[in-house]
Design goal:
Radius of gyration of chain A: 19 Å
Domain ABC transporter (chain A): 16-252
CATH topology of the largest domain in chain A: Rossmann fold
Structural class of chain A: alpha/beta
Distance between the termini of chain B: 60 Å
CATH superfamily of the largest domain in chain A: P-loop containing nucleotide triphosphate hydrolases
CATH class of the largest domain in chain B: Alpha Beta
Strand content of chain A: 15-25%
Oligomer: heterodimer
Pfam families (chain A): ABC_tran (PF00005), oligo_HPY (PF08352)
Structural class of chain B: alpha/beta
GO molecular function, one term (chain A): ATP binding
Strand content of chain B: 5-15%
Number of helices of chain B: 22
Largest interface: A-B, 68 and 56 residues
Number of strands of chain A: 10
Number of helices of chain A: 10
CATH class of the largest domain in chain A: Alpha Beta
Number of strands of chain B: 13
Radius of gyration of chain B: 35 Å
Family (chain A): Belongs to the ABC transporter superfamily.
Helix content of chain B: 40-55%
Distance between the termini of chain A: 26 Å
Keywords (chain A): ATP-binding, Nucleotide-binding, Transport
Largest sheet of chain B: 8 strands, mixed
CATH superfamily of the largest domain in chain B: P-loop containing nucleotide triphosphate hydrolases
CATH architecture of the largest domain in chain A: 3-Layer(aba) Sandwich
Chain lengths: 265, 615
Amino acid sequence: MTDAIQKAGAGTTTVLEVQDLDVAFGKHHVLKEVSLTVPQGRTLGLVGESGSGKSTLAKAIVGLVKPAGGRILLDGVDLTHTKRTVAVRRRVQMIPQDPYSSLNPRMTIGETLAEALDPRRASVKAHRTEIEALLNRVALDGEVAARHPQEFSGGQRQRIAVARALAVRPALIIADEVTSALDTSVQAEVLGVLRELRRELDLTMLFISHDLAVVRHVCDEVAVLKDGELVELAARDALFGEPRHPYTRLLLDSVPDGGPLRTAG
Amino acid sequence: MMQKLRRSPALMLGLAGLAFFVVLGIVAPFIWTDRAETLTDQTHLAASAEHWFGTDALGRDIFARTMVATRLTLLMCLATTAIAAVGGIGFGAAIWVGGPRVRALGQRVIDVLISYPSVIFALAMVAILGPGVGTSIVAIGLATCPAFARLTTNLAASIAGRDFVSTARLLGVPPSRLLRRHILPNIAEPLLVLLSVAFTVSLKALSGLSFLGVGVQAPDYDWGAVLHKGLEGIYLNPWPALGPSLVIILAGLSGGLIGDGLAAAVNPAAGRKRGYRAKVEALTSVPAYDAHDEDALAVADRLSVVLPDGTRLVDEVSFAIKPSEVLGLVGESGSGKSLTAMALAKLLPDDLTAVAGTLKVGDLDLNGRPPAGRLATEIGIVYQDPSASFNPTLKLGGQLTETLRKHGGASRAAAAEQAVGQLAAARVTLPEQRLKQYPYELSGGMRQRAMIASALLTSPKLLIADEPTTALDVTVQAEVLGLLREANERDGTAILLISHDVGVISAICDRVVVMYAGRIVETLPIERLRAGEAEHPYTHALLAATPTLHSPVDEPLSSIPGRPPHPAGRPAGCAFASRCPLARQQCHDELPVLTVTDTGATACHALHWDKEVLA
């Protein structure tokens, strides 16, 4: 199944390649031989229910979880066997789920972004123009740099978190349930910003979500995880149009999609 | 930070007291040193107008000595507190930075140190180093370090779990900066409280050492030393002892008040007025749409939910639930949908008041004081979080059958039998065994099914389900929604389903009420919502912002600019006006009332413009 996608992606360079990744907590296998690739400029959606291992996969890529087997390659460099130096770590950036805990309440937006640009000195003055450009990228005014996170709505905070991830110019962005803490109207605002940025900056992204409708609006390809196993990986239209695995079909049938309840099972 | 602290009377009184002692410490030696240190032959005098606290064995004025001792005492307290704070916070921070192994070891060391009384530790130090000002300061300072160290590591650990710290790590922020910019500023308030407490504690400990004669040695003297000398003739002449004691108590009290005041000021929950009932305002408008429906099972007529300061979190909402109807209540966070539902179950938090023209379920008048038994049996509730709605320390059986036994008069066996029946109906596997299990032994989905079974056990007239599937996986969500619909079709139980998710509402409801900023903007039959034929611009915008499996993906979802008004600042006109693409001046000035349309009711001025244009 995965071969078809990899062939489709041929010609473009591969940014992330996960090969037969195994992660175990004690005797419990959380990820079982998961393989996937994300080519340059593409967004791969990672869907699954609780316990499917999708967050664990993100943690393994970022380096917070040590794999028991398999390899994670970023731009062809094996991350599982190299030391995660600051430079390596900065190549992958994560946008966390909860915009209310992902920004330090005691730092201004400018200080937060300056720290992303230069984690050692973090001078707002030295990076004034870059900070302004970053804020403009996520449709915020440059003046907001002087303010504190408490003054912003959830959607604005999430946009600031996106700007912080962009500041590093990472090879890969991992968006972990970035809209699940947000209201519907605000979710649309954040998804809109991500959509714009993908087009303008040619971003490569791993988009983790439990919400299939959101994934459909954001991703080029979709991987479905169930109990640590990759059950289906397909291009968006193929997956939503003709799901092949029964579990994918069950997931799609379960989504309350504006119509009356379809009795599942 | 300081300007944000509430100025409580305790804090102000404490600060005034401390300021007084600081001034005294500065000026006293200039004024009273002569009288305090000149030897005279007027020894052991009692208190008099000339010598307020009497004189000591060498004829020195004890009041003057107490005043002069203020400076040394305060300086010693300051030095001690500084050693404790710098040492303790430094140690605590260092073991936090040191990594997991150092942290585990360091925390055990702190535990051991903290279990030794500081005065005992100080006495041991004195025995080794010999008594004196320096020894006292170092001894008490070091003995207070562990308290700071423990608080620092514990607080740092709680902040370190927050996303902004892990993100900063991922960005490559070095540990020292992580500590300085991310951790310490966020734990500053509790440390500040501890600082003022440490000041008081060290005053007590230092005075104690001097009082025992192992602290400050002659010719130096602090309050403890003056007290020590004054004690010699306490039966004949109490003032030489009482005077300095009084000063120590006053200074200690000032420190304590500052600590109390700071603690109250940094804790937002403290000092909130509880149990205060809001003034019941006269209801303004006439009974509104469908609130006078004779056949309705539940009626809320001009229901407001009011904060003690008069702010209306829910502002005069009127709706009715028909018998065996599934009514959806949809809205974003802050729309007041959950509060509306909780008012209908008489389950509002203590500091909120429900005010309504009519509020009833069946013949149960919720405006009065309905009997608890009928409330418990006639209204069933399913909460969002199935892991929080059962008591984790009790077996399910007791919890499921409690209402039946207490209010339904059923025997234990009969209640258990009914419970098994309901669990089976809710498709909980192995229902008999479940009664003997604890809630944690069930999966989230099973727990929510058990919760629904429990809510249906008393055959309630109305089931209120507040975001019942929000915490569940999508496949489980579909099953739970199916169960709710089934209960409705089987027993005719009316359901009020609250959700932020238009999809969930569309799945099982008959009719939907849309709330925005504490008001109802529209009610409409579900077919119209499913077809996307809403009248109100907000409902339209909400539908357009919702991603689905069938909408076109090549264009972005439309988002709603701006954000809802705060309940305290809700405008005089339409609450949605500032975000509405249709808004005209009228919308900002006049509150639109719910007007009955062909199929529902809508509160929007624009509907009338159309008619004007058409006419």
